[in-house]
Every structure is written in structure tokens, then in C-alpha cells.
Amino acid sequence: MITDFASEFAKYKATAEKAFARVDEDGLNRVPATEANSIAMLIRHMSGNLRSRFTDFLTTDGEKPWRQRDDEFVTRGYSHADVERLWGEGWQVLEHTLSTLSDADLNRTILLRGESLSVHAALCRALAHVAYHTGQIVLLARILATDEWKSLSIPKAR
């Protein structure tokens, strides 16, 4: 059901927001290893992905010609305000699209990079992508947080 997807996306959104809020701007921009990504890069990438995939979701290919995916991974400095703006832009597109879909749409066919997928399959793919990068953001935030870490889910028993 569409409401199940919306609920799961919202959980990952909230988790990532709690994580990156605990990191200062230096931490947001720190690239921890060669060929790795900073939290800010991951957020820019997720935003670009969500905007591309969910703009005109039912009617155009999910890989938009205006998207410059490789630019999402260029090292640049981002402020907390930049990160929050990028994050909000991507999620606004996704949330709007989900609000327009019905359960009957799950069996419709869309295009993603020229490949035909059911709406259900496309939402599963997008949810997995968000979950994957949210895990990366949480791990990086845990390493880079300036304050003592408090669990974002069920804390370990002590």
C-alpha cells in the first residue's frame, strides 16, 4: 500500500535528519577516505535522486536529462542550511508524489533509465536506495558527531 511506503520513507528521513543534525559543518563535509563520500555529498545525491525519480513520476523516465549525477559527488563545502535545503527539496518531491498515488497505481508501469518497472518495484528500489544511504549517513554521523552519541533507535542494553 502507498501508505506503507510513505511511512517507511518517513522513518528513514527522520533517522537521517537526527543523525546529520549531530554533526558540525566540518563533519558534514569530511570525506573519510579516498573515493568515499561526505554526509553532505550523500544528502546532495539523495536529493538529486529523489527529485529526478519522483518528478513527473508516472509520465516521464525517472532519470531526468537535467540531472547531473556525477556532480552530486564533487567535493564542496556545504553549510547546515545548504544541507537542509537540499534535503528538503528532494523529500518535498517524493512526499508530493506519494500523496498523489493510490494503491491502484502500484501495478502501473513507469520507466527508469529506459527500463519498464511497476510502480511497486520502483518504490521498493527507491526505498532501498534511501535506506542504504541513510545507513551511511548514520555511520558517518556516529563517527563525526561532536557530542556524545545517543542511539537513534533501540539503544544497546548496558
In a few lines, what is going on in this structure?
The chain has 158 residues and is mainly α. Helices cover 55% and strands 5% of the residues. The chain has a single domain (2-144), classed as dinb family like domain (Four Helix Bundle (Hemerythrin (Met), subunit A), Up-down Bundle), CATH 1.20.120.450.
Keywords:
158 residues, Four Helix Bundle (Hemerythrin (Met), subunit A), 5 helices, mainly alpha, two-stranded antiparallel ribbon
Tell me roughly what share of residues is in helical segments: 55-70%
Strand elements, count = 2
Shape-level CATH architecture: Up-down Bundle
Low-confidence stretches: none
Number of helices: 5
* Overall mean confidence score, pLDDT: 93
Record the strand order, biggest sheet.
1-2
Provide the CATH topology: Four Helix Bundle (Hemerythrin (Met), subunit A)
Sheet/helix structural class: mainly alpha
**CATH homologous superfamily caption:** dinb family like domain
N-end to C-end Cα span? 38 Å
What is the global morphology? globular
Biggest sheet record = 2 strands, antiparallel
Instruction: Tell me the number of structural domains.
Output: 1
CATH class: Mainly Alpha
Radius of gyration using CA atoms only: 16 Å
Report strand %.
5-15%
Helix-strand string:
HHHHEEH
